[in-house]
Amino acid sequence: MNQDNSLRGEFSSISPAEFFYRNRQMAGFGNPSQAVYSTVRELVENSIDACEEARRQPDVRVSIDEERSGVVRVTVSDNGTGVPYDEVPNAFARVLYGDKFTARQRRGTFGLGVTMAALYGQITTDSPLIVVTQTNHATGRYYQLLIDIENNQPVILSDKSHEREGPGTEVTIRLKGDLNRSRERIYDYLQLTTVASPHARMEFTINGSSILKMGWWHQLLPTPTTPSKPHPHGADLELIRRLVADAGERSLHDFLVESFQRMGKRTATRFLKFLALNPRQAMNTLGREDISRLSSALRSFDGLGRPDGKCLSPIGKDAFLTSVESVFAPSALTYGSRGPTEWSGNAFIIEGVAAIGTGARAADVPALYRFANRVPLLYDSSEDTLTKMLKRVNWVQYGVGSTTPVSIFLHLCSTKIPFKAAGKQSIASLPEIEHEVLSLLRELGRSLKKTLKRGERSVRDAQKKREFDKAMKQVAQFSAELAERDVVPSTAELIRRLFEVDHHV
Ligand SMILES: Nc1ncnc2c1ncn2[C@@H]1O[C@H](COP(=O)(O)OP(=O)(O)OP(=O)(O)O)[C@@H](O)[C@H]1O
Ligand SMILES: [Mg+2]
Q1: Where are the beta strands (DSSP E) in 22-152?
Q2: Residue 258 confidence class, pLDDT cut points 50, 70, 90
Q3: Atom 21 (ligand 1): residue with closest C-alpha?
Q4: Taking Cα atoms as reference points, which of 273, 258, 260, 275 lies closest to residue 305?
Q5: Is any ligand 1 atom within 6 A of the Cβ of residue 78?
Q6: Do β-strands 332-343 and 367-372 pair in parallel, antiparallel, or remain unpaired?
Q7: What is the SS3 string spanning 348-390?
Q8: CA-closest candidate to residue 449, choices 403, 395, 405
């Protein structure tokens, strides 16, 4: 065949860093105001993950300084695990490098977040990322790093020992950003972070002035998660091939029991009988066609129990109710949850709180706050499946739409959140998730209706309560400062007793 080579471009390949450099809007770095927000968000996510790993109550401090108009310096520090020193250059200056690729719930997913913020800082201000970190060693380390974008490799400008007050990490990034337009979103993000992580405390400072200090609403740390074995419904061809390659002479029956969750001995026997395969057949004698049959049969096999929930960390009833109450001071609230169940083999739980007396008045759909793996989602709401499901419910039937404002807080936690883009802002529509979300919303709707019928507290009461709550928080803050105490005592319990808030379940 005759080919006209003059019409063909030159073929080449680009590194992952180059890809995200060219397509930074996909990762949440599309414009200067979103860039400041995304930088804070990525650093805070990493910090809380690291504190939970260290089994310490997160104490996360965010400070933003405007160096000159349009250039800001963002610093986030935590009391987490610290980063092993030889891993720092790759973890912070190499795209798609991280330690969160296992099947358990973490805030981080892609091994991209902090590097993307560093990359954005580098290309807009030509400044390196600065990391000070300390693991359980006696001394910490200080790094200045750049990214070799073309080759996706870290470039170390400085690496020396550094004193730090105990374990943890502090990351500083200089970037071009619009602080005025992002300030409010960052405030909301940090406030909502304390709702989804009630065991964490957030502090926010702008140009040296304290803007927000809140959290530690709930003292208990979440139970640690453990990675789960693959679920049979997630057994696509690639996964099966990898597992088979490691299985050697093991029998088909033992292979199934050892490799997958929810595959007990009896279930494996039933499954192989149904497939008419010999349970004693050695794995290394399986042909290509057997493997393909095995994969499609596993994915569609019914009669498995609920997926393993130990890999998940829902907020939980007590903690979720306490945090919503502490931040929003509603007049009544109710909690519900569904799961664990799975989508394509990924375990998930959906939980929610409906709160009366907070949100927009006279709206026929409640105000929605979205969370995924304990991270508040503030952008791209209209494209999110949680928003779509909220709109699908007929709320008027549950008494919503009068003058009483109602808010719904929905938290999806999963070993894998089906985000629509690397910016982790909106959740894709999947039938399994849609079904559970709708059922939960209707359940919350039914308890809302009961509460509203039982003579809801008036909007004025809620307003009074909010004002009282605000005043009490100020008193607590002043008292703590007078007594020179770092920790501001929580006023939630006092307010609850004074206003006798109902918890309907
Ligand atoms: N504050 C921190 N404390 C401890 N480890 C950290 C911290 N920040 C980053 N890391 C390490 O660096 C790795 C890379 O972080 P990065 O934010 O790029 O990716 P990720 O958190 O794994 O996933 P995502 O792209 O979703 O954020 C993390 O997996 C973690 O191991
Ligand atoms: Mg991250």
Answers
A1: 59-68, 71-78, 129-134, 140-148
A2: very high
A3: 108
A4: 260
A5: yes
A6: unpaired
A7: EEEEEEEEECCCCCCCCCCEEEEEECCEEECCCHHHCHHHHHH
A8: 395
* 108 touches ligand 1 (CB under 6 Å): yes
pLDDT 10s digits, 91-129:
999 999 999 998 999 999 999 999 999 999 999 999 999
Task: Return the amino acid letter for 111.
Answer: G
Domains of the chain: 16-215 (3.30.565.10), 232-300 (1.10.8.50), 317-453 (3.30.230.10)
Beta-sheet strands, E only, within 69-178: 71-78, 129-134, 140-148, 153-162, 168-176
pLDDT band at 2 (very low <50, low <70, confident <90, very high): low
> What's residue 3's pLDDT?
56
pLDDT of residue 505: 40
In angstroms, rounded to a whole number, what is the distance separating the alpha carbons of residues 98 and 281?
Answer: 38
**Mean pLDDT, residues 255-279 taken together:** 94
Q: Where are the beta strands (DSSP E) in 177-281?
A: 201-206, 209-215
Q: Which of 491, 445, 501 is nearest to 471 (CA)?
A: 491
Q: What is the pLDDT of residue 461?
A: 65
CA dihedral 110, 112, 114, 118 (to 10 degrees): 180
State both tokens at 482: 């007078």
93 Cβ closer than 6 Å to some ligand 1 atom: no
Average pLDDT over residues 301-328: 94
pLDDT band at 504 (very low <50, low <70, confident <90, very high): very low
Computed over every residue of the chain, the mean pLDDT equals: 92
Is the CB of 81 within 6 Å of ligand 1?
A: yes
Cα–Cα distance, 30 to 366 (Å, whole number): 30
Measured distance CA(438)–CA(393) in Å, rounded: 7
| CB-based contacts of 384, cutoff 8 Å, min separation 6 | 370, 377, 425, 426, 427
Average pLDDT for 462-481: 79
Written as six digits, the tokens of 172 are: 């500083």
CB atoms within 10 A of CB 124: 17
Closest by Cα among 140, 144, 143, 142 to 164: 140
Atom number, ligand 1, closest to the C-alpha of residue 80: 3
